[in-house]
Specification:
By secondary structure, the chain is an alpha+beta fold. It contains eight helices and seven strands, in the order E-H-E-E-H-E-E-E-H-H-H-H-H-H-E. It has a seven-stranded antiparallel sheet with strand order 6-5-4-1-3-2-7, sandwiched between helices.
Length: 205
């Protein structure tokens, strides 16, 4: 299953790039529509994971950011940061390491994520998907995300409920490691002007 970590930022890439270059030790940044961008940090560098970077990024830019980490198809974690402070945390499986605990998600509050919408918000879709216990969630996947893990499908539905288009959602599930590992595929998807190299990361194409 795919593991990835990304940060969704509600400003254009050209506005966010100077801050991302300053705070991210290694990684890439890509556009996510005209008013959003994505950071794809190298999570194997100490202190460079999405949750570690979210606070400094939002403090410098003065806008909220949405950090997402999807682990091995089993678990989706989302954190909303504002003014350098954690404002909301969602965890699709908070008791993953406790076999005796229930599998109910925590932090499923659609209102906390409204600042990341690009259009009308489907609150019903957001709430119904994000509040569904893991034990019953294996029975559904989004039509557009078929063939992915259920945690990826959940992430897809969250962003789709916030009116993000399919192309942006796919990009929000790119991990730095996968981008480095498939330079030819990345080059075919992105033009050279659409990728910002951060810190010590190598240019993949």
């Amino acid at each position: 299953m795919t593991t990835y970590g990304t940060i969704l930022i509600p400003v254009p890439l050209e506005q966010a790039a100077p801050v991302l270059r300053e705070v991210c030790t290694a990684g890439y940044a890509t556009p996510a529509g005209p008013t959003f961008c994505l950071a794809h940090p190298d999570r194997f560098v100490d202190g460079n994971g999405v949750f570690a970077l979210a606070g400094p990024i939002t403090a410098e830019l003065g806008v909220p950011v949405l950090a997402a980490f999807q682990y091995d198809g089993d678990r989706l974690e989302l954190e909303v940061w504002r003014d350098g402070v954690l404002a909301q945390r969602y965890d699709s499986w908070p008791d993953r390491d406790d076999e005796s605990a229930n599998d109910a998600p925590s932090g499923a509050d659609p209102a906390a994520f409204l600042g990341f919408a690009t259009g009308p918000v489907d609150s019903h879709r957001f709430a119904s998907r994000s509040r569904t216990p893991r034990s019953t969630r294996r029975t559904w996947t989004s039509t557009a995300s078929r063939g992915t893990s259920w945690a990826q499908a959940l992430h897809w539905d969250v962003l789709r409920a916030l009116s993000h288009p399919d192309q942006v959602i796919r990009r929000a599930q790119w991990d730095y490691c996968h981008m480095c590992g498939a330079p030819q595929a990345l080059a075919e998807v992105l033009g050279s002007t659409e990728l910002v190299v951060l810190g010590t990361a190598d240019r993949p194409f």
